[in-house]
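Quick start: what a row looks like.
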Amino acid sequence: MWMTLKDYLKLELRLTLHPKKIYIQHYAKGVKYLGAVIKPNRIYIANRTKGNFYQTITKINDVFKNREINKQKLQNSLSSINSYLGLMSQYKTYYLRKKILTNQITPIFWKFFKLEKRGDKYLKVILRYRLR
């Protein structure tokens, strides 16, 4: 006897689906989950996540271009960039990370930070000098 997904979730896992939050689509379109799109043969970074990273870089560039640099803003910049790099390192995003870190960030940024690389992998951004 066949059981629907809704019945299986209710009987076996004691879960219910919200009736207005169900969206059925073909599996080839993928499933969005935790900042990624999962498809049958590959996992991609979601466009929204990529866009948010670009937006964060734009805000960081504005801080450095306007010379509004202080200890808190340096720490926030470091945390934001490393957070995105950590997420993106879980997927095949080498060229995207390289493009953003080498082309999108203002040169002033690199006076305060440097890249920690292992081989040709962009792992994280670290401070050049200790903050006081």
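That is the whole record. The mean pLDDT is 86. The longest strand covers residues 121-127.
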